[in-house]
Please model this.
Amino acid sequence: MGKSLFRKLFLVYAGVLTAVVVVLSLILSVLYTNRMYEEKRQSLSSAGTMANRAMGEYLDGLIGKDRLSQNMDMIGYIADARIYAIRYNEENLAEIAAQLADESQADEELMTDMSALLGGEQVFHTRAYSAKLDTDVVLAGFPMTQGNEILGGILMYAPLDRVTRDVLQMNYVVLGIAIGALLVGTLFLLQLTGKILQPIRDMQLAAVRLASGESAAPIPIHSLDEIGRLAKAFNHMQEQLMKTEEVRRGFIANVSHELRTPLTSIRGFLQGMIDGVIRQEAVREHLLLMMDEVMRLNKLTGEILDLAKLQSGTLLLMKERTDLRLLVMETVASLKGLLGERFLQLEVEAGEPVFAYVDPDRMRQVLVNLVGNAVKFTPDGGRVGVSVSRDGSEVLLDVHDTGIGIPEAELPLIFDKFHRVDKSGNPAYGGSGLGLNIARTVVELHRGWITARRLPEGGTAFTVGLPEN
Ligand SMILES: Nc1ncnc2c1ncn2[C@@H]1O[C@H](COP(=O)(O)OP(=O)(O)O)[C@@H](O)[C@H]1O
Ligand SMILES: [Mg+2]
Model:
């Protein structure tokens, strides 16, 4: 993984660098060469003028031959050029050209240039190869004049090897800088990719460990860039996964425990009957006890199933416009039947119909649990009240009792799965501890809320808030 990311970055970097270097050295070479040619042209042009003047002075007899050649040498030295001042005309042009050129045969170009000079023109060539000087040269030619008369031409060859050398040197420098940049850049790139890849590698390893069910240490976060944020998100995900796993383990442990308790007692009773330890007269009583346990198991498995449905998110609420007051009255009436010989006041406190858009079956389930709890945890002589009211666009259901109450510290916990305040296993308070969790989930699916509080006069009140629609 590391190699491939580094290679990609390196290729891009090297490619860009090469392109920049090539373009840069091309531009520099062209600019420099053009400038040198321009300079040459100017210096040759003034050298030509001087040479013509010196020639004129000689022809006028103002200076001698020695002085002439001295002057010419000096002009040639200053202009860095070889200077030929030649008298010729159309007739001997070919012959003179042949002498100038290396080969016995004069080249076409030279002859064309020389006849152009006779016609009064100037010539300037860049990059003509001179065999005599064995290098590329600039050739500049001027007509040689005396008064208005054209006597021949002044030909100057300036070698270009210095320009070529300079350009070459310049390109070497550019190349050197490029190689330096490549080396330094590669080092940086190596360091950078290493830094980028370390957390990614860590995450890869951690993901493998997580997938195989092991726990992994959190990824250290060194920066707050994209990678740092990814690592942070990864750590968060890992934390959540561990939490979920813990909850799942706890849930399974709880379920097994809850299932085992009634099963153990049923098995005990059955064993007693089989072994004949239980007398004939007591059989019926034990069968009733077993019936209780079976009912408990039945209730528990039903609740676990509900929970699974609610948590998988596949549960669809069948919402309809429902009169909650009516729903409460019906539910309470049916629960009254279960009170049996218990001496308890169970009342609905609601005047007018209160409509809300809810799933009536699910809301009945919530009510059964809340009222069932209130009845269960309120001793004889107590009172359980249910009220329905409206608060703005919200509908409030209130279930309050004068029962044993819930300790302040337990209030935040009672909605957790399997949480029961009384853990002694008092059969009067029997239950799985799933009811309130299911109730809260149903209420929240309705976008509502549920709270519990201690009442000042003792007892407990649960309030459910539901949006009207
Ligand atoms: N009205 C109430 N008065 C006192 N305690 C209550 C009341 N309602 C709930 N509780 C406490 O909250 C716990 C969880 O309730 P719930 O989830 O319905 O489980 P269960 O009814 O199966 O015990 C109960 O075991 C009980 O300790
Ligand atoms: Mg309950």
